[in-house]
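Let us work through a complete example step by step.
Step 1: write down the sequence.
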Amino acid sequence: MDLKFVEKENRFQFLFSVCTIISNADEYKQMRESFENCGFVENCEYLVADNTSGNLFDAYEAMRAFTSQAAGQYIIIVHQDVRSEEHTSELQSHSDL
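Step 2: predict the structure and record it as tokens.
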């Protein structure tokens, strides 16, 4: 039996990966601006599953792609109509980030 061993070593390129399925570019722009205004700029990446031209991703496909391709230690999967109200510094002060 062939075994594939996983490595325990955790190396992340970013602290946060903000992942969104987008079907409306204007809503996504507003969502992203709200996150950037709350400090999600440095040490952060944005990943999108682009459904603006049609339903290319269902939720399961997008989540599978996000979790396999995200380079952040913490993955935030958010709907395009959400707006961030909490600054990253507040999040970091409430946890072990």
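Step 3: interpret the result. The mean pLDDT is 91.
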